[in-house]
Amino acid sequence: MLSKKRLNFGFSGYQIPVIPKAPRSARKRRPCIKLDDDQICAFELLAAVAGKLLLESESSASSNADTPTGKDELAGCRDTIKCEQMEDDKALDQGSCVESSNSLTKDWSEVKMESCKDVNADAKSQIKLEGGSPNPDDQRDIRIVEGTQKQLDDDIKHTELTVANVKAPIEKNVNNSALINSDSSVQLPLYRDPVPCASFVKSRNNVKLDDGMKSFYCKRKNTHGNESCRLEVPSKRRKFCDHSFAVAYDQEASSESISNKPEKGIKEDIITSPAVPPKGAVVSASVRNHQKEDPNVKFSIKSFKVPELYIEVPETETIGSLKRTVLFFDKWKSNKQLFFFYAENSNGSSNSYPGKWITGGVVLQGKKVRDDNRTLQQAGISKNGNLDTLGFTLEPSFTKVPLSLSPKADTPASTSYITDQELSRRPPSPILELGPPNALSDPPETKLDKHDESNHELEMSPTNPIDQSAGEAVPDSKALAIVPPVNAEALAVVPVYHKNRHSELSKRRTRRPFSIAEVEVLVEAVEQLGTGRWRDVKMRAFNNVDHRTYVDLKDKWKTLVHTASIAPQQRRGEPVPQELLDRVLAAHAYWSQHQAKQHAKQLAEPLKIVDAQVQNDVAA
DNA sequence: CTTAGGG
DNA sequence: CCCTAAG
């Protein structure tokens, strides 16, 4: 199904900060990794501008908040930044000609853009900030869409950012692996709509192509080995970016996985943009232009953190297959914490979305493609078809929000997931649109598959098809109740991606940090079984999680004990709730004391830590 | 194959 | 996570 996959940097030029392999002690966490000045990704600029847009447009936009469609509200805030590309390789710093008609872009006055060097001489690049007006130009555009919805709960505001619809003139490049576009523009229309999701339904049909849709696609290392695009940002921005970067790399998973890539001999360029969206999540998808005689339909998925992801799916594959593929990558990114969504209200106060997001459905020509069994061809998704009306929807995944993210940190472990109440307070059905704006006409659907939670958090497998279309809308928050996990099977976001790769290319498995939920299950099991029966622990709690061996569990326990023993400030990675760490220590203490006894008794008494502690306390 | 520990 | 000695 997935004939080929490549991960490319949408905005080329940014080089991954290579985290060198070093002794463990030396490469632990890098809370902040400095970028070279010329390595700021264009997406960082977008991220910065997006945040800026959100903030600055707040007043003007909110004054018009009762307008049904936010389409034209911001017509006045159209700005254009043009950066004429330097045809001369050297002239990097001149030529930044910035047109700014309002304050939104003033900070950009120093933006300098160096465009692709090895492209057509008449190439030019421009970044436009545009308010809601479709731009039919045959240029790439990236749009940031913001919508705000107000609910009965006044404090719930939902802001969405979408960077989407990168389009470009059709590239007739013979070399299909090095599509360096010479002309690019970035448009950032800003929409505001008080009606939930309405903004996604209308007014965004500015994607018009003669011949399909093509994403802005720059190979990171082109055939000439030159950098393609570079951006320089003023110091203020740089600071901002650095901060974002620090956030990004606070999750050490990224660095590890990246640093591992070279030695794995993996072909794909897996690139992490340093930018974390300042507000809102950013994702986009588009269908790429196809090469002649290439039987595959090519899709690209964009986000800030993985600016572009590039997959190809044969036309003969089914819609369901496409969904799974997309979801697969969503999960892949999610697993690497490259794909995390936040929701904040416009004031910046946190209304954080602990949940992850999943790819919902496939939308074609405004209608959701419901029959997963149809092939892409049959559904009209063809390399020769109307690819410009294809989109994907993103839907929030409400499952398994660990305790640490829940405001109610005092809930018992078994109920430490989001509650109905919390769920009901969420925006009813936020959807991030992927793809052409006019593709979305279906009312948003927030679907939770009650029967198969694997849809959301489980590893994807052929026997676990993602059939979103068969799901039901869930107006009843009761349906969202999360059943406490019995084991860790459903607790980790583990893309199947890992399975097929590395099989023989490398020995070392990819790092898969334990989720809080997994830790919880592990602790639970160890509490009962003790620290010397890892095989039992495995079978009891991780029986169906084949990537967690009992050695893994033992190792994890080891690190947990260590983590619990050190000061919170010294801990790294996803913070484990103190409650869990306390249990770890208690169980550790208990079992190290009772192990000998256990042998004598021939039977391992399930741990009753509380009792034991009480007794100890009493004794003391 | 499991455990236990060091790397 | 890996590797390995030891049971």
UniProtKB/TrEMBL annotation:
Residues 412-421 have a biased composition (Polar residues). Its main location: nucleus. The keyword Secreted does not apply. One of its GO terms (molecular function) is transcription cis-regulatory region binding. Signal peptide: none annotated. The keyword Isomerase does not apply. One of its GO terms (cellular component) is nucleus. Residues 403-473 are annotated as: Disordered. It holds the Pfam family Ubiquitin_TPR1. Residues 506-561 form the Myb-like domain. Keywords: DNA-binding, Nucleus. Residues 444-459 have a biased composition (Basic and acidic residues). It comes from the Eukaryota. It is found in: Nucleus. This is Uncharacterized protein. It comes from Anisodus tanguticus.
